[in-house]
Amino acid sequence: MTELENVRTGRHCVFVLHTHLVFVTKFRHTVFTDRHLVRLEEIMRAVCADFECELVEFNGESEHVHLLVNFPPKVAISKLVNSLKGVSSRRMRQEFPDLVRHYYRANRLWSASYFAGSVGGAPLTDLRQYIEQQNRPG
């Protein structure tokens, strides 16, 4: 897939925005089996769709998950994260009673913290050089 195929358009913008998100379980306890991870992906894919985002890639282990999300500029990453964690925690508790023992204080499955990193595009050094080389109005 070429870079141009990844370009999305909005009403007043053209964009390619991706973020890498990592969520860990409360106290990093081992919680998830393969069947839990399959359902988590389905839930998180639906939440992303509600935000007009695309869950490009999902994977995880027993105590954390990784998401690669393509998102429009109108989406605040913090709001997306809150919804992903909140909805997935609630749905997993409802659908998998065996997980209830992992919900500590305030019935939370996930740690309050998370990782979010920007992904793709040119390296910062290339961008700085490009901007420096732009003509300034005289």
UniProtKB/TrEMBL annotation:
Residues 14-134 form the Transposase IS200-like domain. One of its GO terms (biological process) is DNA transposition. This is Putative transposase. GO terms for molecular function: DNA binding; transposase activity. PANTHER family: TRANSPOSASE FOR INSERTION SEQUENCE ELEMENT IS200. InterPro entries: Transposase_17, Transposase_17_sf. NCBIfam families: transpos_IS200.
